[in-house]
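User: Here's a structure from my thesis project, written as structure tokens. My advisor, Dr. K., wants to see whether a designed sequence matches the one we expressed. Can you design one independently, without my sequence as a hint?
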């Protein structure tokens, strides 16, 4: 058995009940196989694959808090500090009932390579809780966030580990978490990103992930002699990433006709009304059923179904494993040109393969959604120099970062005789830098 297959089998056996982690490791290992096999004995002796799949540290903790009825509730909190070879741990916090160790490990593992692709000095981490902010009062969310930070603060600081938001963690949660960190440590430092603009946040951070998805898609199209103008786009999700991907696609002359949330999806043939979507999701925190009130000609459907709509470009921006092989078949039949993942690992391995084999340009999340963490790193830089840059400055840096990521992954694919395989390109380019730093730092 080859070294890659041997370690993959060991990772699966050693981490049972973590299917998402297995999926993420399988994808990366398949891509980096040519690099490892070119010098297999050396990497085996260095145990590089064993080291890269074992988090440097995992912290799991109890989060007790009191609800509005006076009842004590208990949730699980977790932070995985996966790899600090190229910088302090950086990655979001996810608050969602589905959160478990395997999901946070898959996200942390992906984050290592994504952060490397940004070209910025940030290592990989991820964290979260099975707490569900949906339906909770602001006071309950604050009580939970304060309790969560009362443990987490021991393990993070501006130079060690800098968490950000993810599903269920937006501006409100980051504010409560930051307030508690400051209160306990008596330090005003850039320990979290995604902060409000009045207390150290960066302009364009809110928009960064969604805008970045469209910037990289635009560069891919340009590289293939096309552009965004006039293209029809299907987006899934209706959260932070989806909203700003839709906004930027419209600004560049494309028309986004779908979005979705965890209960249903919208088809608006005239193009999604971003102002209405922001009001429903960012202000009212309501369901997408509300959308029809703003746009009577749109359709609302229960369940999932976005990918049956004919489109040129697809951007899954909700959650992991939301594009299956049946969806990939519909996208291909409908003539989809390219798919850029806004969410982390929204496409199953089989669906990814199907799309690639049928000529759909496929950009994996670790490249296409890296704009969020890139601007988070720019927020860290602004906090360190105690300055705030303009929206235009941050946005143009973001755009350059996304353009560079595209060419970096495209060139890496070519170097390994896999031209056009952006999954392999992203994994190889992300891995090369981390590998180099790990080898330089010795056995640690
Ligand atoms: P949000 O919580 O803002 O939005 C998530 C959206 O996806 C919501 O519309 C939500 O529906 C929907 N959703 C969540 N879980 C499910 C599910 N199990 N089934 C169907 N729909 C679901 O999160 P973000 O927009 O921040 O994150 C979306 C994805 O992008 C995640 O994979 C995240 O890891 C990734 N990402 C986010 C970054 C960021 O900067 N925010 C950076 C890089 C990646 P509902 O409204 O009903 O809750």
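Assistant: Designed independently from the structure alone:
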């Amino acid at each position: 058995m080859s070294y890659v297959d041997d370690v993959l089998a060991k990772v699966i056996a050693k981490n049972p009940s973590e299917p998402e982690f297995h999926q993420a490791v399988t994808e990366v290992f398949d891509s980096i196989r040519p690099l490892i096999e070119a010098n297999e004995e050396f990497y085996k002796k260095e145990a590089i694959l064993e080291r890269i799949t074992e988090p440097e540290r995992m912290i799991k903790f109890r989060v007790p808090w009191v609800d509005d009825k006076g009842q004590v509730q208990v949730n699980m909190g977790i932070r995985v500090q996966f790899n600090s070879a190229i910088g302090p741990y950086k990655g979001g916090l996810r608050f969602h009932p589905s959160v478990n160790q395997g999901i946070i490990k898959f996200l942390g593992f992906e984050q290592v390579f994504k952060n490397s692709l940004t070209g910025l000095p940030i290592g990989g981490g991820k964290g979260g809780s099975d707490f569900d902010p949906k339906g909770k009062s602001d006071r309950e969310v604050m009580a939970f966030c304060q309790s969560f930070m009362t443990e987490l603060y021991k393990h993070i600081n501006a130079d060690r580990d800098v968490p950000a938001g993810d599903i269920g963690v937006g501006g409100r949660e980051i504010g409560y978490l930051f307030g508690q960190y400051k209160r306990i440590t008596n330090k005003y430092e850039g320990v979290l990103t995604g902060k409000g603009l009045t207390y150290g946040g960066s302009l364009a951070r809110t928009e960064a992930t969604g805008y970045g998805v469209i910037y990289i898609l635009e560069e891919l199209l340009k590289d293939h002699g096309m552009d965004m103008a006039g293209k029809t786009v299907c987006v899934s999700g209706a959260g932070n990433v989806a909203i700003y991907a839709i906004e930027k696609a419209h600004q560049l002359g494309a028309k986004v006709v779908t979005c979705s949330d965890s209960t249903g999806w919208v088809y608006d043939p005239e193009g999604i009304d971003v102002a209405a979507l922001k009001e429903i999701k960012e202000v009212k925190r309501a369901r997408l059923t509300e959308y029809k009130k703003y746009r009577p000609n749109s359709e609302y459907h229960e369940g999932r179904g976005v990918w049956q709509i004919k489109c040129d470009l697809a951007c899954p921006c909700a959650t992991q494993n939301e594009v299956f092989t049946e969806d990939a078949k519909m996208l291909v039949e409908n003539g989809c040109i390219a798919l850029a993942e806004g969410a982390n690992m929204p496409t199953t391995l089989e669906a990814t393969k199907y799309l690639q084999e049928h000529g759909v340009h496929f950009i994996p999340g670790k490249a296409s959604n890296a704009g969020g963490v890139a601007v988070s790193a720019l927020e860290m830089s602004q906090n360190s120099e105690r300055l705030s840059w303009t929206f235009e400055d941050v946005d143009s840096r973001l755009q350059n970062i996304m353009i560079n990521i595209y060419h970096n992954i495209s060139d890496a694919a070519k170097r390994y005789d896999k031209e056009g395989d952006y999954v392999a390109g992203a994994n190889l380019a992300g891995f090369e830098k981390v590998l180099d730093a790990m080898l330089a730092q010795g056995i640690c």
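When you compare it with your expressed construct, this may help: The pocket of NDP is lined by residues 165-168, 209, 237-242, 261-262, 317-319, 342-344, 369, 372 (CB under 6 Å).
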